[in-house]
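=== Structure Prediction Worksheet ===
Name of assembly: unnamed complex
Input type: mixed (protein and possibly other molecules)
Chain count: two
Listed entries:
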Amino acid sequence: MSPTLAAVLLIGIFVLAAALTWLGLGLARRAKRLEEAEPPPPGQPGVDGHGGPTAVAAPPAAAPPAPGLRDRLGKTRAALARSLGALTGRRAIDDEAWDSVEEALLVADVGVATTSRLLDELRARAATERVEDPEQLVGLLRAQIVQDLSGRDRSLHHAGDGPTVWLFVGVNGTGKTTTIAKLARREIDDGRPALMAAADTFRAAAADQLAHWADRVGADVVRGQEGADPGSVVFDAVDAAGGRGAGVVLVDTAGRMHTKVNLMEELKKIRRIAERRPGALQEVLLVIDATTGQNGLTQARQFADAVDVSGVVLTKLDGTAKGGIVLAIEADLGIPVKLIGIGEAPEDLVPFDPEDFTTALFA
Amino acid sequence: MFDSLADRFDGIFQRLRGRGRLSDKDIDEVAREIRVALLEADVNVTVVKSFINRVKERARGAEVTKSLSPAQQVIKIVHEELVNTLGGETGKLAMSSKPPTVVMLVGLQGSGKTTAAGKLARHLVGDGRKPLLVGADLQRPAAVEQLRVLGGRIDVPVFSEPTDPVKVARGALKEADRTGRNVVVLDTAGRLQIDDALMAELRRVRDKVGPHDTLLVVDAMTGQEAVNVAESFDHEIGLDGVILTKIDGDARGGAALSVKEVVGKPILFAGTGEKLDDFEPFHPDRMASRILGMGDVLTLIEKAEAAFDEKEAAKAEKKLRKGQFTLEDFLDQMQQVRKMGPLQNLVGMMPGLPKEARQAEVDESQLGRIEAIIRSMTPEERRNPTIINGSRRLRIARGSGTSTQDVNGMLKQFKMVQQMMRSMSKGKMPRLPVPGP
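=== Predicted Assembly ===
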């Protein structure tokens, strides 16, 4: 390591540790002083006082929303619909036209940084190609995004011989288990036996959920006790698959916040075990919910650092969410989106198509 | 890492020093920066617009005071407006005078309804109530099993039957009456707000049980979509409050503002972690700081409090002051800091650090090397590194899988740091801005 960098790092940690010690101490002390100074707030009367009048009111079902609120909702809705509609019928590309393009991108969760990069490129292109009709802007923008997204390998890879292992990771509630079920069905339809490894031993009944699905789609499942070491489940699953010849092992891991160091370490270990048979681990898929905002990029970065993510599965695109954050993930981290989830049925997990995605982005 | 709002403002206000009042042009310029900060935090575009207008209105009338720089003043206004918007009565459910009180949880798939139901039940038990958990999510495989496991952990009965959600809801009321439970917590299936059939089903459940609290469960990581979700659920079902989940991540949480603005009802609780007692009343002021990216001091403090043992910290502080900090202490400190999460995040949260320092890439593997070197030393060597001679150095390098140069470098830097610390502890510890109580 370069000595200067190491020095800076060392000093940084030291200062950080010292500062936190100070900060933590000072605050613990202050909290104590406050506790001593203030008598505990009377709890019960507050609750009852609050409960009394509200309970008398009619259930919310009967109460119409306040008119002001309704207005606000109407406006929001209209504003969203308007963002690109504002381009039609406009004579020239003025500030307002640019604003509406910007807004359309922002509303799709593309993010400020990627949006301004796209707009800069679009401005340059509009100038060189002498585009004067605002309605043409959207076409140009689409072409530009499709071009950004093109040329990536979006296929799911299988091992040359022996069983294939695909690992599924992500934060809580993105749809890992459901995605695995859908993919298992696909693999089975393609003539490859599927084995699900219930390595989410943390969430209550997660293995049950997976087992239900395995039953439904005709896959095998390997599971451990709740609270068991997820690594041992993966070990057993890879082992079991080895005995049965070719097939796909789909490893379901517990949802985890990318900020939790211990849980990310656990994931690294799971990955190491999944790699036990050389060449078996072919995909590490990060499952991201389309409703996720800018945090999606941070998630992707942290998971990629920890377990070298090979692709993204973008779920829940059947709602009105656009999942624009994947543009930033592809551009900044180079991780391709491989699959998208567009509904509850097994066949609703489909390959990612840049053209379709881009069209839907502005729908 | 995003630039914090404070950094953005510093540039603008360099030029504004010494003026008595903020001009419209200044305010517009500032407003643009606030807009970017809010958008980066995932606040909905439309909500950002109306919010900015309110801030502009307030900033226009504000006199520049002596005690605050113009930058601080605008941040204060923005922060106050955020707290106002996010505020309202938190942590309190409307309780029916005639039990049972019915609390219905609704939301998208994966927002955390089942976990929130378990946590809420636990919270209610802590308040001396007798909740009944009801599994009306018959859609997701094993959702009811999940609820049963959660209920078992906190000793709260769980009711469900494999019929349909409306029947389950009706049965639950009878069950609560029969067993004397005074709060019914109803977990419903996740659904898209545009799924008409499922929304109609939810209305039927609502009409059957007449919930006193219909709570929307929202993931703190939600982006622009938060507005659509909140709007539709409020419009179709009618909401009384919000539970914000998964705030233990590092999302800036602008969704909170979007939802609050649309629904107008309080954000009651926040889910703060994996465990069932990681559930607390929502803190508008903390959320405001977080959305603005103003160095999330409070979160940092909480993390520090969780990771640092107070006695240990006091001991370390004393040693630091005396300049007797050894490699052993350093190892301890490093481990405690690492317990708090990725260093990059921590550094980003530190207020008062220069921008360059906050954006510096922190390579965690280098820490691993430093740790390995220290761990390869004997306790004696850690306490007194001066005894390390050539052969000891070689042993340490071999033991840690590094080179003697690495060991040398580390020792040299440690000595430097020690000296620095000694001079700092002579009353020159950098002062950190600590927020007022």
